[in-house]
Amino acid sequence: MSIESSSRTDTATAQLMEQILYEVKRVVVGQDRFLERVMVAMLAQGHLLVEGVPGLAKTLTVKTLANTMRGQFKRIQFTPDLVPADLVGTRIFNQKNGEFSTSLGPVFANLLLADEINRAPAKVQSALLEVMQERQVTIAGETHKVPNPFLVMATQNPIETEGTYPLPEAQVDRFMMKVLVDYPTDEEEFVIVQRVTGPAVDVTPVASTEQLAALQRECRQVYVDPSLVQYAVKLVSATRAPDRHGMKDLTKFITYGASPRATINLTEGARALAMLRGRTYALPEDMTDLVPDVLRHRVVLSYEALSDGMNSDALIQKIMAKIPPPPKPLEHEKLVA
Fold first, then answer.
1. Does the pLDDT at position 4 exceed 50?
2. Which residues form the Sigma-54 factor interaction domain (predicted)?
3. Using DSSP, how many helices (H) and how many strands (E) does the chain show?
């Protein structure tokens, strides 16, 4: 591909991303960081775990995003009486012809919102394991592929722990990022009230699922310097064996560190964030911005850490302070100039 055609492609990509974000921002007020993380997850083909109190537009954001992309949106309200068949589907016997037919569940969508995922027991939560990793569901020995692109966004409420079931480690590890959503500012809340009490805004579809799939393929072409990958490896390695990186004092605070999925997600996330920021190469800040979101749910703290009042975010900040990111590769800046 010539430099001219490459720049034309970059411009078209940037315009499409801007249009998508513009349409979502017509409905959703604030939450810029959360929205950015949702876009990163979509481009990097990852899944998102969102923690925040009710009423912070988590559902609205994903639903609006689905509408801008002509994608299929499904929402599942997780409850203690849910069974796996309610998610993935089941076999139904037809009395007229005496045959079984397959009824596919709500996981067969482009954007799946698993609301209050920790309200359902582990048996139901584990029904999502296969579909999140393999992008397919097996019902009675038959394999069914979910639509492409496919994104699971799960929410959990941090203030209510009665009647909740902690997510299994295998489940949590399949989420690319865990994003914490905070309250809006006073100015944003004023605009929220005006929007909600005013006339309804109709979202215009600006992209197709085929275009999104093309953007995901384009995202895989974003250049990540080997020094950045090495930085990701060091950070993740430090969550498993801090003593090997000169942080022996942190060893007592960690029970389990992050898996290799964290390193992969950091690299893919840096690519997606670089693409959102209009570049064809990743810079150190693209990765450092995502480190807390990618690692916070993967590091299992010891009882000693919890008794000392330490959380995973504080631990990650200590590791990041000790392991500096690589310098910006100057060759990239020459290519752009």
1. no
2. 10-157
3. 16, 11
- The DSSP letter of residue 185 is P
What are the structural domain ranges in the chain?
Answer: 3-79+110-136+144-215, 222-336
Architecture of the domain whose range is 3-79+110-136+144-215: 3-Layer(aba) Sandwich (3.40)
Please check the confidence at residue 43 and state whether its pLDDT lies above 60: yes
pLDDT in tens, 185-222: 888 889 888 888 888 888 888 888 888 888 999 999 99
Per-residue pLDDT tens over the stretch 269-291: 999 999 988 888 999 999 999 99
CB atoms within 10 A of CB 170: 12
Token look-up 């703290």 returns 301
pLDDT at 161 over 70: no
Q: Give the residue carrying structure tokens 């925040």.
A: 52
b/e sequence 234-270, b meaning 16+ C-beta within 10 Å: bbbbbbeebeebebeebeebbeebbbebbbbbbbbbb
Superfamily of segment(s) 222-336: Magnesium chelatase subunit I, C-Terminal domain (1.10.8.80)
